[in-house]
Design goal:
- There is one protein chain.
- This protein is mainly alpha-helical.
- The chain contains 22 helices and 5 strands.
- Strands 1-2-3-5-4 form a 5-stranded mixed beta sheet.
- A hairpin with a 3-residue loop joins strand 2 and strand 3.
- Helix 10 packs antiparallel against helix 11, helix 17 packs across helix 18 and helix 20 packs antiparallel against helix 21.
Length: about 650
């Protein structure tokens, strides 16, 4: 579903670079006019090949050697775009920074905006979201001042993608909506279509397929009206993926085939290979292994022809799954071997590319240092003139410094005293907490030694009574009831003892305990269990009451599924976002009507979750199973 998002990210810079007028208010020389012309040509071709951009960048660099800094800045901007298009983001970032330094004493604010926008998108792609947001908002301020709608649209689209990557879907949708509204009068503009495509991806990846499909439909109509099949293919691909992930496989197949027609006609082999792998995955989901294998092998063939190692992993993975499901284990192992070899080659290539990139960074820095040295020599004379003024300012500074130093010492003393008080408070709280934990451990031991042994004895005696009174049904029934009750109490007592142990009441142990309990419980019911649980969950301490309430709800839900749903499969998933813990329990049982959600058991489950400030959602369809979703904020679960 994220097909071409990286390409769109790189093009944000290009789209916001409208044709630039003369950057200074003087008559331009012929050489300066040439630089301006090549700059505009580079911007208009920035969606083309890196070689074309590099050609103009080299011409501009030679011509700008003796020109004012604003022309050198234009060269640096084009260099930034050139290296961004080849994914050399460290070098690209260096050129954008260079452009900003050269523009420091100029009024060419639209060039500033281009540099900030380029930096923002580079940091977004490399994952430094703080730096990305900082630079994008700087670019936005300039574009808003200039009322540059295309620039405003692109920056908001970039901000939307940053928040999307940070899983902040609310802010992502807000910025992408602003981007689209800004150019609502010009929907055929590349910037508008880029924002629309990203917003459709946001909705699709968050599971709101209907909203994503609406945007895709509009995008397809617009690209048809402007005869732009390349961008249309992106919307068709997103639409197909929406249908794929919502299990509407025939619709997905239709739109993937539409993408295939465009990709075959356009000759973009990378996109063609991607569409082939998507079709392979689709037919795998349909259990049409022959078709799935055909398309996966086509994808591998195309990628090998263009040395597309980064995308081979997905196609190899599809083939491995096909052969595994067909029990062709030798073929599966053979493909896995190829996949491993491809991954090893990728690691080596990345290492070599990284070394080459940093070599260029070093050489560029060396060149810039030489230029800076010459500039500093020219400033030496000015510094000598300013030296006398500096001596006077230094004396005044020392006076102010000593006054501030006294103030700082007083402040430090006050802060030190406050810190000591805080340490004493923390130490007392730790003593109280340790005492509480010791009490809880003692309680657990006492419950285990006294109540546990008693319940075990009751269970044992009821078994003896049952064996000795085989001919008396009433006694057998009563003793069986006693045995079941005592067994249930023993299980509950074990859960309570487990929860009383402070070492167990962590988020990671809680999830592990649920998995252990579910697996053990459904063992007698011939129910298959499937888990989707994150690895390396942080062992963050959670509140005892939260642990017990959540565990009881999960326990009762599993009990209801095993006894009433006639299910053969349970899927349990845990998702931990920066704000929420979401537990999902789904079965493939008989389901029930909405009116049946008012039973006492379901009411108790719902009441427990609401009492701890969570939200419970139950979705059930007759014959299609039931899904129980528990969602609660992490700050309610974690110990303060």
């Amino acid at each position: 579903m994220k097909k071409s998002l990286l390409v769109l990210s790189v093009l944000f810079i290009a789209f916001s670079c409208k044709k630039e007028t003369a950057p200074i208010d003087t008559i331009q020389t012929q050489n300066q006019k040439n630089i301006q012309k090549w700059f505009n040509a580079s911007i208009s071709l920035s969606k083309g090949t890196p070689d074309t951009i590099a050609f103009y960048a080299n011409k501009m660099e030679q011509a700008a050697l003796k020109e004012p800094s604003v022309y050198k800045a234009m060269v640096a901007l084009i260099k930034g775009i050139e290296y961004a298009n080849t994914s050399s983001y460290a070098i690209s970032t260096k050129y954008y920074d260079s452009a900003l330094r050269l523009l420091k004493t100029t009024t060419a604010d639209t060039l500033w905006a281009k540099a900030y926008n380029g930096l923002g998108n580079n940091y977004k792609i490399t994952g430094d979201y703080t730096a990305a947001l900082k630079n994008l908002f700087k670019a936005l301020a300039v574009y808003e001042k200039k009322q540059d709608k295309i620039g405003i649209c692109n920056v908001h689209a970039g901000l939307g993608e940053v928040y999307f990557q940070k899983d902040n879907l609310g802010d992502a949708k807000k910025h992408l909506t602003i981007a689209m509204n800004t150019l609502a009068h010009d929907k055929s503009n590349q910037a508008y279509l880029s924002a629309a495509h990203i917003l459709a991806n946001v909705y699709g990846m968050s599971g709101d397929f209907d909203s994503a499909l609406k945007i895709d439909e509009v995008g397809i109509k617009i690209t048809d009206s402007i005869n732009n099949p390349k961008i249309k293919s992106s919307f068709l691909d997103n639409k197909a993926n929406c249908f794929l992930f919502s299990n509407r496989l025939d619709s997905a197949q239709y739109y993937f085939n539409e993408c295939l027609k465009i990709d075959l006609a356009g000759g973009n082999k990378k996109q063609l290979a991607d569409t082939y792998s998507n079709l392979g995955e689709l037919f795998l989901m349909k259990n049409n292994f022959a078709k799935a294998e055909e398309y996966a092998l086509k994808s591998v063939g195309v990628l090998k022809s263009i040395d597309g190692k980064p995308n081979l992993g997905k196609s190899y993975g599809i083939l491995t799954e096909i052969y595994t499901k067909q029990r062709k284990f030798e073929k599966a192992l053979e493909i896995q071997k190829l996949q491993f070899e491809n991954k090893s080659q990728m690691i080596n290539l990345k290492k070599e590319a990284s070394e080459a990139e940093y070599k260029i960074v070093y050489e560029t820095q060396k060149k810039e240092n030489k230029i800076q040295f010459l500039q500093e020599e020219e400033k030496i004379k000015e510094l000598k003139i300013k030296q006398q003024h500096y001596q006077i300012e230094r004396r005044n500074f020392l006076i102010v410094f000593f006054i501030l130093l006294i103030g700082v010492l007083i402040g430090v003393g006050y802060l030190w005293r406050s810190k000591q008080k805080l340490r004493d408070k923390i130490r007392k709280n730790k003593i109280i907490q340790k005492t509480e934990e010791q009490i809880r451990l003692k309680m657990a031991k006492d419950i285990h030694d006294d109540l546990g042994s008693g319940l075990s004895k009751i269970n044992f005696l009821s078994e003896i009574i049952s064996q000795k009174t085989k001919d008396i049904p009433e006694i057998i029934s009563s003793s069986e009831s006693i045995r079941e009750t005592s067994k249930s109490m023993i299980d509950n007592m074990r859960d309570l003892i487990w929860a009383l142990n402070p070492e167990n009441t962590t988020l990671s142990n809680f999830i592990a305990r649920i998995r252990e309990y579910t697996t053990d419980y459904v063992e007698d019911y011939s129910i298959e269990t499937q888990y989707d649980i994150p690895e390396n969950i942080a062992p963050t301490p959670i509140k005892n009451e939260m642990h017990r309430a959540l565990f009881l709800v999960v326990k009762e839900t599993i009990n209801n599924i095993a006894k009433h749903s006639k299910a053969t499969k349970i899927e349990f998933s845990a998702h931990i976002s920066p704000e929420y813990l979401t537990l999902t329990i789904q079965d493939n049982g008989v389901g029930f009507e909405d009116s049946n959600t008012n039973g006492n058991g379901l009411k108790n489950i719902k009441s427990r979750i609401e009492d701890i400030g969570g939200k419970l959602t139950i979705e059930s369809t007759i014959g299609a199973g039931t899904t129980v979703i528990i969602k609660i904020k992490l700050d309610k679960i974690y110990k303060k």
